[in-house]
Amino acid sequence: MDEEVERVGKILERYTTVQNETKERLAKLANERCIEIQIGDATCENAAGSQVARNEFEKLIEASGRKDIVIKKTGCTGRCSAEPIVGVLQRGRMPFKYQSVTAEKVRRIFTEHILGGQPVIDFLLDKKTKNKYRHQIAFFKNGAYTGQDVFDAAGRAASRLANAGVQKEEVKIGVSINPGLFIAHESLQYYMIIFPEEKARNTGSTSDADVTRYGVTKPADLDRIIDSHLLKGEAQPDLFAAADPLFDRYLKMYADIEFFNRQTRFTLRNSGIIDPENIDEYIFYDGFAAAARVLDGMSPQEVVEAVKKSGLRGRGGAGFLTGLKWEFAQKAATPKRFIICNADEGDPGAFMDRSTLEGDPFSIVEGMIIGAYATGASQGYCYIRAEYPLAIKRVEKAIEMARAQGFLGKNILGSDFSFDLEIRLGAGAFVCGEETALMHSIEGRRGQPRTRPPFPAASGLWGCPTTINNVETWANVPVIFLNGPEWFARLGSEKSKGTKVFALAGKVINTGLVEVPMGTTLREVIFDIGGGIPGGKVFKAVQTGGPSGGCIPESLIDTEVDYDSLAAIGSIMGSGGMIVVDEDSCMVDVAKYFLEFTMSESCGKCTPCREGTLRMYEILERITRGEARDGDIERLERLANLIKKTALCGLGQTAPNPVLSTLQHFRNEYELHVHSRRCPAKVCKKLIQYEVNPEKCIGCSACARACPTRCISGKPKTVHTIDAAKCIHCGECFTTCKFDAIRKN
Amino acid sequence: MTKQNTGERAYTLERDLQDFIASCRKREHPESFLITVLHKVQARCGYLSNEHMQEVAELLGVPASTVSGVATFYHFFRLKPQGKYMINFCLGTACYVRGAPLVVDAFREVLGIEVGETTKDCLFSLEATRCLGVCGLAPVAMINEEVYGKLTPTAIPGIIDTIRRREEA
Amino acid sequence: MATNMIRLTIDGRPVEVEAGTTVMEAAEKTGIHIPRLCYHPKLSVEGACRICIVEVKGMRTWPVSCATKVSEGMEVTTASPAIRQARRDIVELLLDNHPMDCQTCERDANCELQNLAYQLGVRDRQFAGERKCFPTEDSSFSVVRNSEKCILCQRCVRVCAEVQGVHNLSQHWRGAGTVVTPAFEANMIDSVCINCGQCINVCPTAAWIEKSWTDEVWEALHDPAKHVVAHIAPAIRAAIGEGFGLPPGTPAAGKTAAALKLLGFDKVFDTNFTADVTIVEESHEFLDRVKNGGVLPLITSCSPGWVKFIEHFYPDLLPNMSSCKSPMSMHSAIIKSYYAEQAKIDPANIYVVSIMPCTAKKFESRRPEFMNAKGRPDTDAVLTTRELVWMIKAFGIDFVNLPDEDFDNPLGYSTGAADIFGATGGVLEAALRTAAEILTGAPLPSIDFTQVRGVVGLKEAELEVAGIQLHIAIANGLQNARELLARVRAGEKFDIIEIMACPGGCIGGGGQPYPPKGGYTIDFDLYKKRAEALYAIDSGKEMRSSHKNPYVLELYKNYLGEIGGHRAHELLHTHYHARTPRGI
């Protein structure tokens, strides 16, 4: 008992010392800096050309001789289509974000904005910002507010300022609906940040202290702030809200970009903000505070209880309760235990884990320290796919730095708890995302799953109790202990707590990473955040959950996204891939695409998956080639249900989902393919009949020359005809014709 | 696992790789380092030869069948040296009817290799692919990222020659 | 001791079983044999075929009964209509990727896949499409691999690793392209395969079969210029009856001899004869090493699978190997020398067929060590028990009702010590009988060394013979041998060790009859019956020590000269060498 007493307080004390030293170091640096230029350094950013931008900035800074302008490396922000993204951060001012930055743009940004103080409007991310604002206001809306007088603060502020004669162009109002930020401010309806007026900001000597923070609950409060503070320059101290790093960090990163402001970023809280290769920055934002708190004052049982209470569920796919998983391992009889981070993100189209690994590796390390303490593990493995070299490097570095600071290794932070982490690499096997396959892979074997039970919590790596969670789950763990499990449990839907990161891709305007509270509707994600479908096309379906997921039709777009409601409509949450499909896509073709993926990624161990997916693919191939036989749809269903019920592992059991869900929601498309030999989306080449529109054909013979099988005939300057019997449906005539005279049917 | 083998044996793996494997073998669960070791060997040698895999097996103390079983399971591992120029010829329908088989024969003849093989100088690998979607130019082949269309058997020696001369220069 | 009992219901019937029991085992107790395929009682649980699925109330998917442990209050349904259709469909999926050549397949009517297809009612093909294609791999002298017939149950991979410790086989590639092969997809002949044939024994289909030499033997039998001679191994007589439906453990030496004569063999000898010779030579060798400080422990070398194993895996221990040839190779060598001389037949015209329980003997017969100067093998052909059963059936011989006949002398007479060669521990017991009597110079009061009997994988004993303390050990199944060898390498003192590659010894050899429907190989209860048959023959014989075999004594007197002498060495001894690829 005495030892217990001695431990309490000591560890936190030690952490606080470390954190204070870190903060002092960073503050000193900050004082030397006037402007920070944030440049993404992540696989995606680099592929988009961020290194070019970085080199250009370096040259310009060098030439300017300015020591107070520094470049800051961060991970990716998850705003894919606009990369490379460059942020210009100046204390006391709203941050500015530039998109698709090239070397040329860098030169203008540097001279006009960084040296000249005038943001380059044309290059701004999503171009939402207008020039020369007198007033800059940011509203954070408390999504969980349950009190009286619910009102629209942004609209009210805008109209009140307009009534007072302030020009619309002089005001910039940002709104963020982000329930996750209101930890210490739950009674507020809005948290409001007012930036100093433009005239005060030109000196470049403003600091964060010039920012005023208000808490707004009643419309009358807002009116008073506008009338007195904004219009007369009289602060209203009775309405001040305490400074909260969460809001500041949020603003620093995301500025007033709508794409970000509708998100609630827990997992991605540091991605795109901190330098992922600098542990100081992580510590600055309370990094390792959660681990210190846990080690200082909590028993492993209490930690497990807290995780259970938070309602956190595994973010890798199946959504098993994390706390329960930990409890099984904790209660296991074998003393030697392991924990694993599953960083083998393999779903085509999902990259949130890479973003976290590259952008905030420390949060994973910290989550694992807490998990190891709770489950009694002394050794952890981070299993990263080999296709992510930068992520591997970042995690390696993070582990090293954490070890150097005493967060890993023997007697962490002076406690009696020792734990260390090692990296193991994958080698390109989708199935290794399955936990038993992954453990086999760590053990140096073929990554084939085995039957469960025993579950890894009872018998995992080398027969020892093992706790496996994926990257996103681990990254969420510190959040629970920083803010409390009750707080975590307040976000999300009834059975799915917290947030989920989605990788939004396909036929959608804003592609990228979107983190929203569980229970957000698909419509909000795709249309409000994603910006809807490009090119005026019609939304057809969204495919969630990758190859294990399903296609959700337009009629179900108001479904709230969580584990259970997605499962109820034949899809899954999966790792969070969301691929939007428009009217130009054939659902049979989409199903075939995914099935080809699962078929070629099947490990080959169990009969239903190995043989069944092969036969299903053959049938789909027949259907899309116009060679379907009677009963093929029924055969597909029979095989799909067989695999679902009898395959060995979760990946096998979910492999038929893309087929089953498209059969459920788009059965008529299948029937048209089978019975009428038609592909309504005109995707399945073999089902397209090409004909010449006699009214448009001028007889130029270009199509006939292009046709590889010479099946188009006709005298020059007369209408040509296509011999359907010889046509191989290659579509060459269609692309060649300049007169729209070839029709698809 | 056996603990020793009699007789000295000369290994072709480079010394530092041998040392690395030896260090893995000293640790707990040496077999669990197999994938790590294979990554290192491939990074060094470009691919995993049978000879190297047998050496890894012996040095790490893992059955050779496990080594090649693992190496073939994971996509990331390559078991054959890849040429600098990957020739992917299209065997789609349009190419087929336009004489792709004759073109393939020409490639095989000029390079002296079969489909799926790599030339001795490691310059060219020859692979078949499904439709490249360039039917109008049939028959086509892709050499690395570049598409060559309307190929005839007589054109092949010239194409290969150009690349060879570029390489020699 | 109170065991933890679990109550559950299976198909509505209450069952009480010990905790840790699988659903499959529990069902067995209620009289329900759940259909299965990849399951093998002696191997680790694979759970891959998914045929033994059952419904468990409250579970979303259908668990496999082979891997699922019972739990309190579990409600299991083993054969609902949905389960039956699923099983049917799974078996059909396997058939869809399987050659449709049942009628001409070696395993026709003895194939677990075929049986299941019939039993589960796969009457039409719903899903058939492309079928996988692989060439047949027949580089080995012993085993043939037909990957097209492989259903990837992994039993061969498991037996090779878990029972034999060879790890020659692994799955390669993945998904529908998965194939079971040795390392680097090498041919079997270039692998560390020890030819034991246990892969054949456990294979549910004909993906593994022995390299058949029946055609060659038929041809020789019909060649008037050839003097065709057979000799049959000790373990044959204890198992061959099973091939004709006789109960396991029925001794059938007489019927076998009679059948061979009917088949047209000119002489039918007994490998037992040279088993006695082996003992005489080997105990001489052992005593020589004991007396003269030779390399100990002496390790027996009768089992060709084991011999190849040590050459690949433990070449450092080769000096421990007995230099004696196996009884088969001794016999064939004696036939082509001593017998040829006596019968005045040109050895070139003698065609020796060994009937062995073993596939590795086929390999042994082709080792250069056992060929004459012209490269002609001493043993021209080796047939497994299964091949002989098939030949007898093909000939139309009514084996069961065949009157017994004797082996031909002089090479057909043996003592009881030779009979027990077929069971694990038998060689050592036979050697002890002879060595002890030589050491003490007097007949033993009891020659039954029961300490070394019993069908278990690993046995050890301390014996005192004529004042000498002996530490002896016996292993069968090479994974067990590995344990012993590790101790030998570590310097532990052993004097003599018997190692047989196959579980149970030769009675469990890779060439023995397939078990009847529903049965499994590596079944030690079955092997015990076979062993009992051999010990019964032994105890029923008057002459039970090899060195007392009058024909053996005659052989030395008339032909070989001294035991362990020059001629004996030339004809009866050999040496082994390290092999590549190195085993690990």
SSE topology:
The complex is a heterotrimer of chains A (745), B (169) and C (584).
Chain A: H1 2-31, E1 35-40, H2 43-48, H3 50-64, E2 69-74, E3 86-90, E4 96-98, H4 103-115, E5 135-141, H5 153-163, E6 171-177, E7 190-194, H6 198-201, E8 212-216, H7 219-232, H8 245-254, H9 258-261, H10 279-284, H11 289-297, H12 300-310, H13 322-331, E9 338-343, H14 352-359, H15 361-375, E10 379-384, H16 389-404, E11 420-425, H17 435-442, E12 466-470, H18 471-483, H19 485-490, E13 499-506, E14 512-517, H20 522-529, E15 539-544, E16 550-553, H21 563-568, E17 577-582, H22 587-601, H23 607-624, H24 632-646, H25 650-654, H26 657-665, H27 667-675, E18 690-692, H28 702-706, E19 712-713, E20 721-722, H29 732-736, E21 742-744
Parallel strand pairs in A: 1-2, 5-6, 9-10, 9-12, 10-11, 13-17
Antiparallel strand pairs in A: 1-3, 3-4, 5-7, 7-8, 13-14, 15-16, 15-17, 18-21, 19-20
Chain B: H1 15-26, H2 34-45, H3 50-60, H4 64-73, E1 85-90, H5 93-97, H6 100-111, E2 124-129, E3 141-143, E4 146-148, H7 156-168
Parallel strand pairs in B: 1-2
Antiparallel strand pairs in B: 1-3, 3-4
Helix pairs in contact in B: 2-3, 3-4
Chain C: E1 5-10, E2 13-18, H1 23-29, E3 55-56, E4 75-77, H2 81-96, H3 112-120, E5 143-145, H4 155-163, E6 169-172, E7 179-182, H5 198-202, E8 208-210, H6 214-221, E9 227-232, H7 236-239, H8 253-263, E10 267-270, H9 272-292, E11 298-299, H10 304-313, H11 327-343, E12 350-356, H12 360-365, E13 381-384, H13 385-395, H14 416-419, H15 426-440, E14 458-465, E15 468-476, H16 478-489, E16 496-500, H17 524-540, H18 550-560, H19 566-572
Parallel strand pairs in C: 1-4, 9-10, 9-12, 11-16, 12-13, 15-16
Antiparallel strand pairs in C: 1-2, 3-4, 5-8, 6-7, 14-15
